[in-house]
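Escalated from tier 1: S-adenosylmethionine holo job.
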Amino acid sequence: MQKKSARYLAVTLLEGIEKQHRYANLSLNHLLQNEDLSEVDRHLVTRLVYGTIQWQLRLDYNWESFVKRSEDLPLWIKVLLRVSLYQLFFLDKVPAHAILNEANEIAKTRDHGRYTKLVNAVLRHVQRHGEQDYQQITDTEQRLAITHSMPLWLTHRLIEQYGAEKTESMLAQVNQPPRASARVNTVKVTRDDLLTSLGEELPDLATSRLSPVGITAEGGNFAQLIQFQQGQLTVQDESSMLVAPSLQLRPGDQVLDACSAPGGKTTHIASYLDPHSGGRVIALDIHQHKLDLVDDNARRLGVSDRVVTKELDARRVDKEFKDAYFDRILVDAPCSGLGLMRRKPEIRYAKHEQDIANLPKIQLDILSAVARKVKVNGLVVYSTCTILAAENQDVIQAFLQKHTNFELVPVKAAQDIQWSGDQKQFQLLMDDYQTDGFFIACLKRIN
Ligand SMILES: C[S@@+](CC[C@H](N)C(=O)[O-])C[C@H]1O[C@@H](n2cnc3c(N)ncnc32)[C@H](O)[C@@H]1O
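Tier 2 regenerated the structure:
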């Protein structure tokens, strides 16, 4: 059998991601593990998959107007055109004739070659006329949506919330390659010692500007290092590392982590606790298979002695725990994840306004259910990896209206961090420190 080319593999993978709503990173890892590809081809497939998803709407804008009833075309043609245009516009080193030839070869293998002429005609046309000039789009929302490849409804919501200028700056950041980032596991090693041992292994290694336990690198993959297997570090975005310090933990605290899987924050919380003083974090999740990941992570990071996992819908905590039992509670709520668009570019197209409309109720229900379980003077931290007020500030406002025995207190961080907007509610945006978008609010029970 003829070996499949990198471009053919990228087209097939992208088709599957879109049709079956799969995660790009998981699908790509699976492909890279199962196909026998050279290093060059591995890089090319990775670039084609992420780049094409990132710029999808902008790429479509460049061909759709030349094709009648473009929406009726089979998905594989749309994907093939996107992958080809991505190479024409973004990859300087690939000659145009090679891109067109390969697209032609792929088109011949599908649907009995029925669409080969169309694919060739569209690509020749775009090659002759070049990329569209987006500055010509007079409507601001549409211009930003196309330029940065963001669905129009989402661009509209962001402009409404943050204004056009901030939205543009944020969106420009979203399509930049993110730095790799990891949290040092201080249970096993100090940051300085780990940096020394990582030495030359990773390019452009640096300490985080947000967290005293964060490290970043220009490229590379922290999860492939021996230090990862040894539990000296774990992969985590710098923004997520701000959650555990905001709980202001003490060694003997009883902590509830209401939505814990896969355990990034549970294990960070655990690093502040001392099992000999009775310190413990109970990690809940609605899915048992995800809790297995929390257990695996706790074992690898050497904190199993202070982590207890339990399958439970956090809205049902009443069945399991007495009121005022915990010193600290974290609700790292299920959310739209729109703050993660840099690392998961497909999120922006997979989420629709109606999916998001249902989330605030679930978020508020979880927060309200667990709030009774914290002691007087104890803290409940609410966090999400999204940037929409409906899932963040509005949830907090609705909670405070119903729970007059709680007040908002400032979010404590170990390092000086600047953010715009309400200073009591921490909303980090992707362009602030080139991290994921993240929200944290700290609620204190006052009686
Ligand atoms: C944002 S993720 C948590 C990430 C995690 N805190 C970490 O740092 O690795 C939200 C989690 O909430 C879980 N979840 C969703 N609904 C839930 C519910 N009603 N009760 C408990 N967990 C829930 C999901 O399965 C998911 O694992």
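The pocket of S-adenosylmethionine is lined by residues 258-265, 284-287, 290, 313-315, 332, 334, 366 (CB under 6 Å).
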